Structures are given as structure tokens and as C-alpha cells.
């Protein structure tokens, strides 16, 4: 693997944060999970990861956070060339239609998950979006076949993508 690809979970309620991390724990060996409870903390983590040469493959973010909200954070990430390709998921029970539309239009939101969520849905969404990220951003996606959608990766490799394309 070239660069370390991270999953960032941003949630201010400790029990909800623990549940999200627990539900996606199968991915953690390949995609380290970093956690933040505010947008400000998330921004610091993002900068640390990028400074160390890593990438944020996926952010699972609550909308209602102390200070800046999750949609604002994801819009900011979309405007940054280093995080614009990050797959963005809003996990919330509180975002209104206006905020959700803004996240879709301005943050390239890939998925909306309402609280409470179904664990298998969260796992499937995580797997699908990380597969998308890897196929678009990793030179050799074969290293991820054991944890991601191996059929999709194999199909892309058969089409000649992934090993020589950047």
C-alpha cells in the first residue's frame, strides 16, 4: 500500500461515537479509524494525517456538533484539494432538508444515514464508499481486496485499471 488511508468519525455523543467505531471495526486493521468530537478537533486530525502523508478515505460525520456543524466541515473539506476526494457521509437525526441539500450540493455528500442506523447498512455503505475511494485514488487496489468489494476491484483490474493508471 502506498499511503495510509484513514476513516474519520466525527461525533460529539460518546455512546454514539463508540457504536459507530464498533460497527466499522472490521475495517480498522486496513483503514485506521480516527475520532473527533468537534469540527475543530476533526480539522486538526485531518491536518496531522495529511502532514504525515496519509489520506482521509472516508468521513462519517454528525451534523449537530459543538461550534461548527458537520455540513460546514464537509463543505470545507470539499474545497480543499487534499480532501475533496474523501467520501463523505452524514450520520444524523437532526439535519434539516436545507442542510442536507447543502451537503449534497456543496460537499459532494455520498450518503445520508439517519440515526438510529442499522449496523449492516453502515458496514455496507463503508465498504462501498471505501471501494470507490480506493479504485479512484490508489495505484494498486489489489492490496484491499480482502476487506473491500473484491468483485468490483477484480472487474476494474480486468478492465486494465488500477495497476498502471494513477
Give a summary of the structure in a few sentences.
Helices cover 43% and strands 17% of the residues. The protein has 166 residues and is an alpha/beta fold. The protein has a domain at 5-118: Rossmann fold.
Topology:
Elements: E1 5-10, H1 14-23, E2 33-36, H2 39-51, E3 55-61, H3 70-79, E4 87-92, H4 97-107, E5 109-114, H5 119-137, H6 150-158
Parallel strand pairs: 1-2, 1-3, 3-4, 4-5
Helix pairs in contact: 3-4
CATH topology of one domain: Rossmann fold
Total beta strand runs: 5
Residues in helices, as a percent range:
40-55%
Kindly report how far apart the N and C termini lie: 14 Å
Q: Give the topology string: H per helix, E per strand.
A: EHEHEHEHEHH
Structural class: alpha/beta
Task: Report the major sheet.
Answer: 5 strands, parallel
Order of strands, main sheet, comes to: 2-1-3-4-5
Low-pLDDT regions: none
Under the CATH scheme, which architecture of one domain would be assigned?
Answer: 3-Layer(aba) Sandwich
**Average pLDDT number:** 90
Strand content: 15-25%
The CATH class assignment of one domain is: Alpha Beta
CATH superfamily heading of one domain: Response regulator
Description of the molecule:
Strand 3, helix 3 and strand 4 form a beta-alpha-beta unit. Helix 3 packs parallel to helix 4. The protein is built from 6 helices and 5 strands; from the N terminus they run βαβαβαβαβαα. It is globular, with a radius of gyration of 15 Å. The mean pLDDT is 90. Strands 2-1-3-4-5 form a 5-stranded parallel β-sheet, sandwiched between helices. Helix content is 43%, strand content 17%. The chain has a domain at 5-118: Response regulator (Rossmann fold, 3-Layer(aba) Sandwich). It has helices at 14-23, 39-51, 70-79, 97-107, 119-137, 150-158; strands at 5-10, 33-36, 55-61, 87-92, 109-114. It has 166 residues and is an alpha/beta fold.
Amino acid at each position: 500500500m502506498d499511503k495510509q488511508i484513514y476513516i474519520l468519525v466525527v461525533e460529539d455523543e460518546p455512546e454514539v461515537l463508540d457504536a459507530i467505531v464498533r460497527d466499522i471495526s472490521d475495517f480498522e486493521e486496513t483503514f485506521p479509524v480516527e475520532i473527533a468530537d468537534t469540527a475543530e478537533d476533526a480539522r486538526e486530525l485531518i491536518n496531522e494525517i495529511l502532514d504525515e502523508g496519509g489520506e482521509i478515505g472516508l468521513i462519517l460525520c454528525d451534523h449537530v456538533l459543538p461550534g461548527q456543524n458537520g455540513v460546514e466541515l464537509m463543505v470545507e473539506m470539499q474545497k480543499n484539494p487534499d480532501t475533496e476526494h474523501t467520501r463523505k457521509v452524514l450520520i444524523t437525526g437532526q439535519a434539516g432538508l436545507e442542510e442536507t441539500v447543502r451537503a449534497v450540493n456543496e460537499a459532494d455528500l455520498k450518503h445520508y444515514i439517519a440515526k438510529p442506523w442499522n449496523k449492516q447498512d453502515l458496514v455496507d455503505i463503508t465498504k462501498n464508499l471505501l471501494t470507490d475511494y480506493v479504485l479512484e485514488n490508489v495505484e494498486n487496489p489489489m492490496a484491499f481486496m480482502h476487506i473491500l468489494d473484491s468483485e468490483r476491484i477484480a472487474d476494474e483490474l480486468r478492465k486494465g485499471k488500477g495497476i498502471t493508471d494513477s
